[in-house]
Write a structure and sequence with these properties.
CATH class: Alpha Beta
Strand order of the largest sheet: 5-1-7-8-9
Largest sheet: 5 strands, antiparallel
CATH architecture: Box
Helix content: 10-25%
Order of helices and strands: EHEEEEEHEEEEH
Shape: globular
Number of domains: 1
Number of helices: 3
Number of strands: 10
Strand content: 25-35%
């Protein structure tokens, strides 16, 4: 298994960081599924115990300038990792003014996502801050537990009165309370 990605564009980095921050607020741990074209953040707590479920699908081309991934085998070209999104969020906070961010799957003492942040410097040499985020590799026999949920077709329509009328009503009612039903 191999994974390596690089973000150079600061806007893409900020957007990716905001997504990770949101996921970190929702869950203590989540599953990161890596495929050739997409990244998935999956949260599947037991709904019966009051937990939440989440499925976040990101096209890698929208965020990464370089993206290389080799899965377990040629027919199962995916990687499933369990990680603490708060750790990834903290690592990306150091990258707010970065020139580039490299994310790589390593296995030194344990499997880790290495986040290398290249920071600008006043001298000709650049500074690189490295964060190793421990991850758990999900075995292939458990991959079916993290398949895309089936969502029923939805049809939502919202009808509002003329905006000018609604604005005048809301302006008058805001003196009564902070909330309206």
């Amino acid at each position: 298994m191999r994974f390596r990605a690089k973000i150079v564009d600061l806007a893409c980095l900020n957007h990716f960081s905001r997504i990770i921050n949101t996921i970190a607020k929702l869950a203590k741990t989540c599953i990161l599924r890596l495929t050739v074209g997409k990244l998935y953040f999956i949260l599947s707590d037991k709904v019966a115990n009051g937990g939440a479920s989440m499925w976040c699908e990101l096209c890698q081309g929208n965020f990464f300038d370089e993206y290389q991934m080799e899965g377990v085998t040629a027919e199962h070209n995916e990687i499933y990792l369990e990680l603490v999104p708060e750790n990834l969020s903290r690592a990306l906070k150091t990258a707010q003014s970065a020139k580039a961010v490299k994310i790589k799957l390593t296995n030194k003492h344990c499997p880790c996502l290495r986040v290398a942040v290249e920071l600008p410097s006043l001298s000709s040499s650049s500074r690189i801050v490295t964060h190793d985020i421990p991850v758990g590799v999900i075995p292939r026999r458990m991959w079916n537990d993290f398949r895309e949920p089936s969502v029923p077709d939805f049809d939502v329509s919202i009808y509002l009165p003329v905006l000018k009328t609604m604005k005048s009503v809301v302006e008058r009612m805001k003196n009564l309370s902070n909330f309206i039903v």
